[in-house]
Specification:
Length: about 300
């Protein structure tokens, strides 16, 4: 199956076609998509008629083990019956739009901050795959930032100063910056994880900033100085030349590399217009390998 990759932004992001990912099971095509991820970091696939089961199965074929210890799972069980399928929606179990003061909505508002999926876990997230099921009649876009190009653009002395720094990532921290309150039990389950501030991508060898809103502090630095540096790096990495804005269509699937990008949801009138997206994230384990029992 011959794929085409059409770049959508100067530094990253490509639209891929023609392909029906439900039918992709051969090693050669999966490897071609992985190579596209290494080059572009974000891939857009149109007209993917996924069911929940299709999306989960493709994610496992493509990149192996799935992330299930989501922050939202601490608050409530998934309405889909599978914690690997994240509900990036503004509706309840009955399909009704959440009210403005619903705790689930308040928790989800932090998706409007620049973030990387599952950086608060160890191992963290590698690839996220977000599928559009219901799209509102108003713009409800998602922005992505290329943290590889942002790192490349730093002065040499700044790059040298970042080597060896480690950062604590906490999803509780990012939510609390917006005033979200967790119970003591919830906080206990959301202790976070420590990762390098600069990550080297294994196959491409490129280096990328690993920051965003979950980054609570630089380990072994005083908190004020560490948070100031993290804020400055996020501002640098989200300059317009490093950002792509995706306008969703129904049945879009967007895959991004959390080690090489940040992303955020753009605001829309979410107490009026219904939007339903499903996300699956894989874990950043040593090698991309199919899960036993899933057809290769």
């Amino acid at each position: 199956m011959a794929l085409t990759f059409r770049r959508l932004q100067l530094h990253f992001v490509a639209e891929v076609g023609p392909v029906d990912l439900r039918e992709v099971r051969d090693a050669a095509t999966l490897a071609e998509i992985r190579a596209g991820m290494d080059e572009h970091a974000v891939l857009v696939f149109r007209d993917q008629a996924f069911t929940d089961e299709d999306q989960l199965a493709f994610a496992q074929r493509f990149d192996g083990q799935l992330h299930t210890k989501t922050g939202a799972s601490v608050l409530r069980r998934s309405r889909f019956g599978n914690e690997a399928l994240s509900d990036i929606s503004n509706v309840d179990e009955n399909g009704d739009v959440l009210s403005s003061d619903d705790r689930r909505r308040m928790y989800g508002l932090a998706n409007r901050l620049w973030h990387t999926d599952a950086s608060f876990q160890d191992p963290p997230g590698r690839y996220s795959m977000l599928h559009a099921r219901v799209v509102p009649p108003v713009p409800a876009d998602t922005e992505f930032a290329d943290t590889r190009a942002a790192y490349d653009a730093l002065p040499a002395e700044t790059k040298a100063s970042l080597d060896g720094l480690r950062v604590h990532h906490s999803i509780a921290y990012s939510r609390q910056t917006l005033g979200f309150d967790f119970s003591k039990e919830e906080e206990e389950r959301l202790k976070g994880a420590i990762h390098p501030l600069v990550r080297t991508l294994p196959r491409s060898g490129r280096r990328a900033l690993y920051v965003a809103s979950h980054a609570s502090r630089i380990v072994d630095w005083p908190v004020p100085e560490g948070r100031l540096l993290l804020r400055e790096l996020i501002e640098h990495a989200t300059r317009p030349e490093f950002v792509y804005r995706h306008a969703w269509r129904v049945a879009d699937l967007v895959i991004w590399d959390n080690r090489a990008t940040m992303h955020r949801a753009r605001p829309f009138d979410d107490t009026r217009h219904r939007r339903e997206l499903r996300r699956v994230t894989t874990l950043d384990i040593e090698a991309a390998a199919p899960v036993v029992g899933v057809p290769a």
